[in-house]
Amino acid sequence: MLRLTSVSHRAVGRVMSSPSNVIRRIRRYSSVSHVKRTTIYDLKKKYAENKPLTLVTSYSAYESTLIEKSDAIDAILVGDSCGMVVAGGKNTTGVTMDDMVYHCRAASSSVKKLFVIGDMPFGSFEASDEEAVRNAIELVKRGRVDAVKLEGGTRMAKRVQAITDAGIAVMGHIGLTPQSQSAMGGFRVQGRSVAAAIDLIKDAKALEKAGCFAIVLECVPEFVAEAITANVRIPTIGIGAGNKTSGQILVFQDMFGLFSDFQPKFTKRFRDAGAEIVEGLKDFSAEVASRAFPASQHTYNMLPGEEEKLRRSIGLSNRDNTQTQHEIRKRRIAVIGGGAMGSLFAGRLALRNQNDVWIVSSWRDHVRAINSDGLELRSPLPADQPSQRIRTLRATDSPSEVVQSFGGPADLALVMVKSGQTDVAALKAAEILGATQSSFALTLQNGLGNAEILASRLGAHRVLQGITSHGAMMISAGIVEHTGSGFLTLANPSGIHLGTNHPSPEDALKAMLAATDSTANLLTDAGFKVDRAPTNMESLVWGKLVVNSVINPLTALMGVKNGELLRHPEALYIIHKAVDEACRVARARGVELPWSDPFETVVEVIRQTSQNKSSMLQDVLRGQDTEIEAINGAIVQEAKRVGIDAYVNKSIVKSLHRGQFRPDPSNAARLAAEIVQELTEEANVS
What is the separation of C-alpha 591 from the centre of its chain, rounded to a whole number of angstroms? Predict the structure, then answer.
């Protein structure tokens, strides 16, 4: 009888005296889901329903966890192939019972659902029935398997019977039996002749009669495997036996490129994890060499104030301390916008060890991909590396997470969102930069008015401006391609109007000039060629606007990459008309463009970014809103203010808004001709 101690009585009394405690415990225990363990009956049921069985080898808890997580595999086999793919042996004959017990126990330790089969190694069952039974029991008890597998046909039927009589399930194995491969003349296909095929059928029947619940058929012709399957009433599991068996099994390492000594014909590499691991090791070595790893997110800190105490205790002066902190503190950078251009700049900046970089983006898949596997930066350009995986970059949709990670405000917020999102980006920049006057935002956006929106939140003295014609394209979440090198120009802050209410405009301009110099150096170190604008910012912004106003909408309407525009005379005609119109509007507003020949500048940008898909084309292909109003629409609005009928840009805006086009590169010439016709009609009306 179970006896309760006085402590137990009191505990029970407390629980039973409170109905809420009882209900809470009932709910807790009733909510625990019961995971049903796969049994032989489940395998037989699936076989009876003529559903193929899937088995995979496993030699460790990690492999078993992955296999079980897939929720797609019926059973695992802890094979003596561990002697080759794990231990590096030339065959399986050297594997011992201790080896198999170790691997069986490791592979089964994390299993909650899968049926686990353990291989009986060479020398563990051949000598006698008694030894076979003893070792099978050893695998079940110490290895914690549900069944055992042994090699051999008719000659081993007696051993199978003895083990099944002991209450242990047995899987047979005929055809190529690796433990006897030396006697077979090596790893060779079995059953190619009629006589050999008939012997295999007899072997299968003998194993079935002896009590096997299933049989592995290895390296036999497909028709022979089909004949065996038709002549027995238990599942046949093929490995190199064609597609007519009751199921299939493969070695885990063969499936994922983790064993490269040789690859049998019957295996298939479903993923090349081995190659990924090799690249990951190279990345690790490179990041250690450059001291990019470990980064701040991988590093522990002392308790607040303790580092300073330690510095004093080991003799570092305040001057030494300040200098050391200045030398080791990384530049804190937040890139607001996780599109192609934002990802390109963030990736390039994060490659430099002295920068701590975050991407702030609402694209959740992109954020997850970066935080899981890093950002893959691709480039077909001769000056760039073909592919780099940047694991020091981090991503989030939360500005507060960035500030918390930095331990304070960022030094620079690089704003790379679409013009229509600048209001929201300004709020994020304000949170990330705080009130620190030494923190700045830099906008490299398309369109007009972005700097003014940022200035409304940060103050004009904390907003730097620039333009770029670099091209980038998102391949998928976590992967961006640098498709074209172009210009990157930062504005001279001396042309910025801070307003009469600013307390110290001279000091503010000096700070902006120093920040612009520092940012130019930062971007140069990241691999960008940076120019400093000799003219004012308005000239630069309008210059970029003219470039965008022709490349972006035309590539979107025609469905082509930038370089294709130069192949169509109709497109060149539209470019010439649109550039001329935009220049007239700019001059009427008193703005001189930064180039002597704007048309040639546009053509040169197209050449430099010939392989790029413009952001507007990417938006159209994804069914997203474009920046047409912020670019061409802005030119139309500015034209109205100065009394110019911008019929070219109006026509382009109407064409994109109608949504009646289907971007199709094969029809690019026809689409361009249609736009020319519309321009002609608009000109006649005007």
Answer: 45
